[in-house]
Design goal:
The chain is α+β, with helices and mostly antiparallel strands and 278 residues long. Helices cover 41% and strands 24% of the residues. It has eight helices and ten strands. Strands 1, 2, 3, 4, 5 and 6 form a six-stranded antiparallel beta sheet that branches. Strands 8-9-7-10 form a four-stranded antiparallel beta sheet. It is elongated. The two termini are 48 Å apart.
Length: 278
């Protein structure tokens, strides 16, 4: 029997995410702007959506955009407590009707066509969350530590005090370069150790570009980590050990939806736009 979908004046579908259904469940919530959230189900898969106009969410008010994004994440968080696995979809992904196909039918057709690949992805994601791990180095602290602990550098510094001003200047340049070289060696060595320890606690890691920070602290590693729920305590315990190092520190956030590991599932829709404040 052909599935019959109720007529909606709002023929766009805002998509929050996709879910794996291994047992009979229902899910409702209030989404962006208080819109009722519902499921579009195909076999063991469903899309989590609300009905909307076929146009992007835009606002000149930063607070409005932040509220929408928070609502998006809240719905995903609520869904993760109901479904066996939830795959997040980017904020402001909207599916429109295509020809004679309603937007519900477009999503249903896509779920059917991509059932195998989506099911594999969801089984890969099951019982896992994303965490962000960022490693920082207080370069000034590390430089001072190296300068006072390295015998070669201490000898070079003593030699400077015995030289004439012109020669001392050249020796000072040599000392500064030697310290920076040793700092780089120490950072690379510690980064390798840190990365491998984090990797041992993770199912997968995406290495992100380090972000710019203030002059006193440099971000060395920026990692998006897929972590099994059974291994998160082990990761947290290792990160706590970094507090013992004067020169290095860690920022640890999560759990988050697995955005960094979803890849391109944009085939679900022609996303009208991503929302930016103008």
């Amino acid at each position: 029997m052909e599935k019959v979908f109720p007529p909606f004046e709002e023929d766009g579908r805002y998509v929050y995410g996709l879910a794996l259904i291994l047992e009979r469940v229902s899910f409702t919530s209030l989404g962006i702007g208080g819109k009722p959230v519902r499921m579009i189900i195909s076999g063991d898969l469903c899309a989590i959506v609300h009905d909307c106009l076929p146009q992007p969410y835009r606002s000149a008010e930063a607070d409005s955009v932040r509220a929408w994004v928070m609502d998006h994440h809240r719905v995903l968080d609520e869904a993760s407590k109901v479904f066996d696995c939830v795959v997040p979809v980017s904020f402001d992904t909207i599916v429109c009707a295509q020809g004679e196909l309603s937007s519900d039918h477009v999503i249903l057709k896509w779920l059917q066509e991509e059932q195998e690949s989506l099911t594999c992805m969801m089984r890969r994601f099951k019982n896992k969350n994303e965490y962000v791990v960022q490693l920082f180095c207080a370069t000034d602290v590390l430089e001072n530590k190296i300068a006072f602990e390295n015998k070669y550098l201490l000898k070079l510094k003593q030699d400077i005090d015995l030289k004439s001003p012109g020669v001392a200047y050249m020796y000072k340049q040599k000392l500064d370069k030697a310290i920076k070289d040793e700092v780089l060696i120490e950072i690379n060595k510690f980064s390798d150790y840190f990365y491998n320890k984090v990797l041992s606690c993770c199912s997968e890691i995406v290495i992100e570009k380090p972000k710019k920070t203030d002059a006193s602290s440099k971000m060395i590693l920026n990692l998006s980590c897929m972590v099994d729920n059974d291994k998160i305590d082990g990761l947290g315990n290792f990160l706590d050990e970094i507090k013992l190092y004067d020169s290095f520190s860690v920022r640890f956030t999560g759990p988050w939806p697995l955005y960094s590991f979803v890849g391109d599932i944009s085939g679900i829709s022609r996303s009208i736009s991503s929302n930016y404040v103008e």
